[in-house]
Specification:
Radius of gyration of chain B: 13 Å
Helix content of chain B: under 10%
Largest sheet of chain A: 7 strands, mixed
Distance between the termini of chain B: 37 Å
Oligomer: heterodimer
Number of helices of chain A: 0
Number of helices of chain B: 0
């Protein structure tokens, strides 16, 4: 069964930075686009970013463009989300998911909580 | 940007009822439409993709239909384990992915 395991969440002050990781296993990571989705407390799902299978195309929601950077290391089967200039409204559970880039999201990780607060 | 709307925002139905949730895209998205189920405190789960294809392992009481701008998720014979919030999602052109606001389903 496909596994996705996020890490790197935590408490950070407004204006701070954080890097999330998503370790993938049990599938050929380099064959798939990958996506980050977040969910603020008590709210719905919000798409954050997608990256193509080779990492040569990246896409961002308007709310994070210019502050977040998605990347991947196919040799390590790992997806990343570098977050900077964090705001209170970035507080959410961040999920990585397999798919995006014209593909549905068929597997999701358990999520990692990012709390932005002073 | 293409916007996704869902109706109703919430519903209560009796066990065994047939439940229908609608999703509308502001522009034609062909069949690039997926449905997800999120139970309280849990990770979202893919139910249906390409508007009507049932994901492996999903009970057959779930079905999807539609194309273009109007889509439907149907739950035949509502079960206690179906209490959840259901999201539609489009995954065609930029922005690549947009979720609907969700429909909360409870048991009456």
């Amino acid at each position: 069964e496909v596994q996705l395991l996020e890490s790197g969440g935590g408490l950070v002050q407004p204006g701070g930075s954080l890097r999330l990781s998503c370790a993938a296993s049990r599938f050929t990571f380099s064959d798939y686009g990958m996506t980050w989705v977040r969910q603020a407390p008590g709210k719905g799902l919000e798409w954050v970013s997608c990256i193509s299978s080779r990492g040569d195309n990246t896409y961002y929601a308007d709310s994070v463009r210019g502050r977040f950077t998605v990347s991947r290391d196919n040799s390590k089967n790992t997806l990343y989300l570098q977050m900077s200039s964090l705001r209170d409204e970035d507080t959410a559970v961040y999920y990585c998911a397999r798919g995006g880039d014209y593909r549905h999201l068929d597997y999701w990780g358990q999520g990692t909580l990012v709390t932005v607060s002073s | 940007d293409i916007q996704m709307t869902q109706s109703p925002s919430s519903l209560s139905a009796s066990l065994g009822d047939r439940v229908t949730i609608t999703c509308r895209a502001s522009q034609d998205i062909s069949n690039y439409l997926a449905w997800y189920q999120q139970k309280p405190g849990k990770v979202p789960k893919l139910l249906i993709y390409a508007a009507s294809t049932l994901q492996s392992g999903v009970p057959s009481r779930f079905s999807g239909s539609g194309s273009g701008t109007d889509f439907t998720l149907t739950i035949n014979s509502l079960q206690p384990e179906d209490v959840a919030t259901y999201y539609c999602q489009k995954y065609n052109s930029a922005p690549r992915i947009t979720f609907g606001p969700g429909t909360r389903v409870d048991i009456k």
